[in-house]
Structures are given as structure tokens and as C-alpha cells.
Design goal:
Length: 394
């Protein structure tokens, strides 16, 4: 189950590139310093959160310092602000009523919070809960903002991106990439906890070996021409990574360090493939295209660069990556885990065959793990996947 979850998690992560490109390719990063702390908007994968649960003990630090003992507590809409009550029994008295409430953990345990009691996660740092202005006719939405030290953030992201079998040098290579992605965001940036940025699942993903790896990296970044590189990573390339420009389009042209390399190290990945899925023709033709997509160009890693699809009398040319995103969004991310895919009509179904997992650009995570097992250092792993970028010297 954990493996399946991690596979799905990794597939979602790959989709983050879509937004990452929109955000990253438009402007080159200029700031060199990493933020020492950042704000993360929690539960962004949920469309609407009208109630937020917190598990005690914790401390309210604003508006009035209050120590809260064991129990489960619920924030709800209270007209002009929010109200906190203990959960259980008959209607509980109000603990606090305010426009917003700032909380911190009590003792060494991180603060447990969630949009419902079944999905509580633990977070270090402070959390602010407040009410967002409601759209007309819709219920009020509550938000939770986590102010977290960048060390905890990077440790959580690296832990969530890897499995316990990953070696230390692979973890260190990932830590460099996460620090590199944070670098252009300014002093105290606000980011989302989803694939829009990087998936951040809180303190429980900070495994001891990940904390060691992040500690050893000590905020070192990957640079190109003295600036933080725009780095990408994916689960498994299944033999070869691709040039950024072939997957993400002309916007990636200047990112010369995103060059495809032959990778023989990711065979240990459960996503190496091939993955073969059949989609009933009626569903495929309703959601994706009225007939087999026509491949116009492939790159030298056998990934589709551009394809033509016809649907409802309309013909559209799109990149292989855009078509792959559409397949994931409409049919499910398990249908084509990797961007090296082909689609054939076979009888009353369409067969989608893919290999690897994720977009295939930049660092191959399972390849990094394979190289780590062979005794390569994180510097050698990063040099392999980003040949023209270099590690920051401290
Ligand atoms: Zn690989």
C-alpha cells in the first residue's frame, strides 16, 4: 500500500513541472540566498476547507497566549472571524474568537492539524488559521498557513520524494535540488503545498537519514553562470532523460543544462515499465481524441515532441507533454506514468504503453538512487544529470 501511495505521489509530483515551467521559465532567478523560513499554504489540494481541526496539546500565541491541553479542537466560521471549540459532547464553549489565530507546538512534538480528523498532518513552526473572503453564495473558506524553517521544509520535501531505501548520496542530491528551487523565491516566500510548487506533507516525512543528508548539504545549490539553475526531477527515465526543450517547448531553450543523458541506473524503479493500460474506445474518444493521435516528432529518447489529435471535427497540434498531462488529468495518472508513451487503437479499446515515471527531464530519482548504490557522491550524481551546471562553492 505504501508503495502504491508513493507511486501515485510521485506521479502527482511530476505534474508540478507544468506550473513550475509557467513560473520558472518566464523569469530567470536572480536571488542567490535561500530563504531561512517560508510560508506554506496547507491543504491546497482540497478545493474548499470550511473547518480546520487541531490536536492538542498546543499553544495559541495570537491573539492571546493560551496553553491548550490534550483533545481535538475545531476552527469554524464565526461571521467576521473564526472560533475555536473542543470537539465532542454537547456544544463546547468558545476557546477563542478572532479574525485569525496563530498557534505553535507545545514541547517537542510538531503541531497536528488537518481539514478533517482523518487527514491530520504534523508540522513544525507556527500555523495561522484565518477566514478567506467568501464568494457570493458559497460557504466561507478557512486557510492554514505554516511558517516553517527552510531546513524542515527541505527535509520534508526530500523525504516525501523518496523512499526509505534511497541511499544518502541520492538524498543529498535531492536536497540540493530542493534548495535550488527555493533560492529564487525571495526572503520569506509563500508557496503552496502541492505540485504547483513542491509537495510538502509535514514533519512525518522528515526521516532521520533525510535530516542527516539535508544537514550535510547545508543549503548548497546547483548553479549555472553563477545563478541558481532551474532544476527539474522525475521518478524514473527508463533509459534516457530528455532535453528540456523537447518536453517543455521553446521556453526551455536557454536552459542548456537540461540536456538528455543516457541513464542505465534506474532499473530498480517499480515504474521502469513498460506499463500497458487499455482504455475503452468510447471513453478515450470522449476525453482525449476521436482517433489515434498522429505523432509528428519524437526526440532521441523516444518521447513524443509533438502530436496531432482530432476531436469533434477539430484538429489540434500539441506537445507530447501536453497530451500526457491531458491523459493524466482526464483518465488518471496511472494510465501513462511516463512521458515515453505510445497510443494504439486495438479493437474496441485504445492501448497506452509507457515506460518510466514523470516528465523525463533533469534528474532521474531512481537513477540517482542507482548511482548512489554504486558509490557515487551527490556531486557526481548531479554532474551526471546536469553536466553543465555546477555545485555552489561555500
Ligand atoms: Zn533513469
Amino acid at each position: 500500500m505504501a508503495l502504491i501511495l508513493s507511486l501515485y505521489m510521485r506521479m502527482f509530483l511530476t505534474v508540478g513541472a507544468k506550473v513550475a515551467i509557467a513560473l520558472c521559465l518566464l523569469s530567470l532567478p536572480s536571488a542567490k540566498a535561500n530563504p531561512s523560513s517560508l510560508y506554506v499554504k496547507l491543504f491546497q489540494a482540497r478545493p474548499l476547507v470550511s473547518s480546520i481541526f487541531v490536536r492538542g496539546p498546543f499553544v495559541i500565541v495570537n491573539p492571546t497566549r493560551t496553553v491548550i491541553n490534550d483533545g481535538v479542537f475545531e476552527f469554524t466560521d464565526a461571521g467576521r472571524g473564526i472560533v475555536l471549540r473542543k470537539v465532542g459532547g454537547k456544544r463546547q464553549k468558545e476557546i477563542v474568537r478572532a479574525p485569525y489565530v496563530v498557534m505553535a507546538n507545545r514541547g517537542s512534538e510538531p503541531l497536528a492539524i488537518g481539514p478533517d480528523q482523518a487527514h491530520m498532518r504534523k508540522y513544525y513552526g507556527e500555523i495561522t488559521v484565518k477566514k478567506e473572503p467568501a464568494e457570493p453564495g458559497k460557504p466561507a473558506q478557512l486557510t492554514a498557513l505554516n511558517l516553517v524553517d527552510s531546513f524542515n521544509y527541505v527535509s520534508s520535501v526530500v523525504g516525501g520524494e523518496t523512499t526509505p531505501q534511497f541511499g544518502k548520496e541520492a538524498l543529498k542530491a535531492m536536497a540540493v535540488l530542493v534548495y535550488t528551487r527555493l533560492a529564487p523565491k525571495g526572503k520569506h516566500p509563500t508557496v503552496s503545498d502541492t505540485t504547483d510548487e513542491m509537495v510538502y506533507l509535514g514533519a512525518e516525512h522528515e526521516r532521520p537519514e533525510v535530516i542527516d543528508a539535508v544537514n550535510e548539504i547545508d543549503r548548497v545549490k546547483l548553479l549555472y553562470n553563477g545563478r541558481p539553475a532551474q532544476v527539474f526531477f522525475h521518478a524514473c527515465c527508463a533509459g534516457r532523460t530528455s532535453d528540456g526543450v523537447d518536453i517543455f517547448g521553446k521556453g526551455a531553450k536557454s536552459l542548456v543544462y537540461l540536456k538528455g543523458v543516457r541513464c542505465d541506473y534506474c532499473k530498480g524503479s517499480p515504474l521502469f515499465g513498460p506499463t500497458v493500460k487499455k482504455i475503452p474506445a468510447a471513453i478515450f474518444e470522449r476525453e482525449i481524441a476521436g482517433s489515434e493521435p498522429k505523432v509528428l516528432e519524437k526526440d532521441n529518447a523516444e518521447r513524443i515532441v509533438s502530436a496531432e489529435i482530432s476531436k469533434g471535427g477539430r484538429t489540434e497540434v500539441l506537445s507530447g507533454y501536453q497530451l500526457w498531462l491531458r491523459i493524466g488529468q482526464k483518465l488518471g495518472w496511472d494510465k501513462a506514468p511516463g512521458t515515453r508513451y505510445e497510443i494504439k487503437r486495438t479493437g474496441s479499446a485504445y492501448t497506452i504503453k509507457s515506460s518510466g515515471g514523470g516528465h523525463g527531464v533533469g534528474l532521474c530519482q531512481w537513477g540517482a538512487q542507482g548511482l548512489s548504490r554504486q558509490g557515487k557522491s551527490h556531486a557526481e550524481i548531479l554532474k551526471f544529470y546536469f553536466p553543465s551546471a555546477s555545485l555552489e562553492r561555500r
